[in-house]
Amino acid sequence: MRKKLFKSESKRLLDLMINSIYTNKEIFLREIISNASDAIDKLHYISLTDENARSKRENGEINITFDKDARTITVSDNGLGMTADELEENLGTIAKSGSLKFKEEMDKKDRDENDIIGQFGVGFYSAFMVADELTVISRSYKEDTAYIWKSEGASGYTIAEAEKDTVGTDIIMHLKTDTDNENYSEYLNEYRLKNLIKTYSDYIRHPIKMPVEKRREVGEGEDKTYETYTEIETVNSMVPIWQRPKKDASDEECFAFYKDKFHDYTDPVSVVRINADGLVSYKAMLFIPAKAPFDYFTKEYKKGLALYSNGVMIMESCEDLLPEHLRFVKGVVDTNDLSLNISREMLQQSHELKAIATNIEKKIKAELKRLLEKETDKYLTFFAAFGIQLKYGVVSDYGINKDSLMDLLLFYSAKNEKLITLKEYSENMAEGQENIYYSCGDSISAAKGIPAAVIARDKDYDVLYLTDEVDEFVMKTLMTYNEKKIVSVLDEDNGLVSEDDRKKAEEQAKDSEELLTFIKEALEGAVSEVTLVGGLKDFAVSLNTKGGITLEMEKYFAQMPGENHPRAERVLELNPEHSAFKAMKNCYKDEPEKAKKYAKILHGEALLSAGLMPEDPFDFCNLVSELLS
Ligand code: ADP
């Protein structure tokens, strides 16, 4: 039998498949099954008008078997089949839609071939990623003769007559030998194949059947034993759960689907179903998880929704369907309005995709709002896992999303001793209170211990204790809520110190200029300024900052890679009414050494109450002990 050569462009594609380093080789099965399903659809379509085709047509089904010893996987369909000419034309040339588009993509410069394989698959030839020999036995509905097409790859293919009783096509893939890096034998396994079918082809409209091994009891009483037997089972569910009417898919079923598909053990907090029939028609089933996957905060985590077209998954994770701040959302989008064979760049530009993404964002935010209002416990679970993501969403892109996110944020309220919204805060402000106050710290108790926070609480003002590093940036981005200014308890002019106290402290500062300079020098550059402030009540000192960088921001930047992080300019605020200040005032001239020690102790105290360690804790402890002895 004479060997025929592949047409040159097909050969190129073939080479690519044979030598593929693409890691996701498993998609070959999806491609072969998808072709089989198409073949069944085509026969159905033809039989609507063709009497001969109608007489040959049976209920469409796809059968998959494997043979461990022979190292083969066979996919059989009872679709329209191929004549010898069609085998030649379809499998010897790359003339068909999907593959042709693929080739056009490949011809563009600087393409990452693996990327394209992954995004779109490339049909029949993809089987060469795992197989070293492909055999196609096909009988067309048009003829009584069957043909066998065989190829071992790039060297070409042969076509000959063959035996086949029924109309349809068998694709027999002989798997490559395992290597150190590749385990092809893994596909010769019932569980693995079932899993692949479930993952990629669950929603093919025709049944995909496979013999599966089962166990049953035989005999009775003492003779009771188990035997294994095989049964043909339909592996795919045929109707996608997201295409079922709402009443036919309970939340529990959807959750089971979520756990299965997205490999989570925990039920999500919510499922959002969309059935859109507008400019773009699509169905979506989206999930809001209850906890972050272990890799969520790493580069490994992939944001995106699975994209389906006609029941075939075309992209496992389409990033462009989700904004960054909703990257925790999982789910599926199914639309027939997107072409299967467009490149990733074209997809990004597509108006349809943008319309879907915009709508999805709206629906998810609406659902989060509903949870917050109606199912608070669930929202709290969600917020514990992903609240930080929403906060980053407020801060990023110059705050462009802040308006749609701010009502979804929760902060710890001093007054309520639990998380509340800014709305709740603003609606329950004390008489005469003008601003929304917050205090930052590494923990609630640290934020609570800041003198200015205590003073605000003394006035019966609620204070939000912020413990996430990003929190202060969130507040600075929001700036106001409901026309109320959001201010730090440490901000100047934040209304916590009365005008009288402020003026008085100012005058005292003028009188104490020499002492303040003395203290600053005693601290040897640890602070940029020493001032007196009013209203500090029982507190001797407080640490504040000036300029744009606060202590919390300094901590945040310190964690970033690199050096020369911005540092907060520290201001030591002293209470002129406090005995500690008075003691220093009395002694700094006659006993400067003693006054220096006082200054250092007060500075250490200020650091501690701001949640920071004194630079030399040992020295600080010694000073305190000395004072006590
Ligand atoms: P595509 O499916 O994108 O057109 P493929 O390379 O997967 O490209 O397949 C090439 C062609 O081979 C198909 O268009 C189809 O005409 C034919 N073909 C593949 N598999 C089958 C099958 N199981 N039954 C009938 N025809 C098939």
Q: In words, what does this structure look like?
A:
It is a single chain. The chain has 629 residues and is α+β, with helices and mostly antiparallel strands. It folds into four domains: 206 residues, Heat Shock Protein 90, CATH 3.30.565.10; 142 residues, 2-Layer Sandwich (Ribosomal Protein S5, domain 2), CATH 3.30.230; 79 residues, Rossmann fold (3-Layer(aba) Sandwich), CATH 3.40.50; 130 residues, Four Helix Bundle (Hemerythrin (Met), subunit A) (Up-down Bundle). It is 38% helix and 21% strand. The chain is built from 22 helices and 22 strands. The protein has an eight-stranded mixed β-sheet, with helices on one face. Strands 15-14-17-16-19-18 form a six-stranded mixed β-sheet. A five-stranded mixed β-sheet has the order 9-10-13-11-12, with helices on both faces. It is elongated, with a radius of gyration of 35 Å. The protein starts with 7 loop residues before the first helix and ends with a helix. The model has no long low-confidence stretch (mean pLDDT 88). The chain binds adenosine-5'-diphosphate. The site of adenosine-5'-diphosphate (ADP) has 18 residues, from helix 2, helix 4 and helix 5.
In short:
With 629 residues, the chain is α+β, with helices and mostly antiparallel strands.
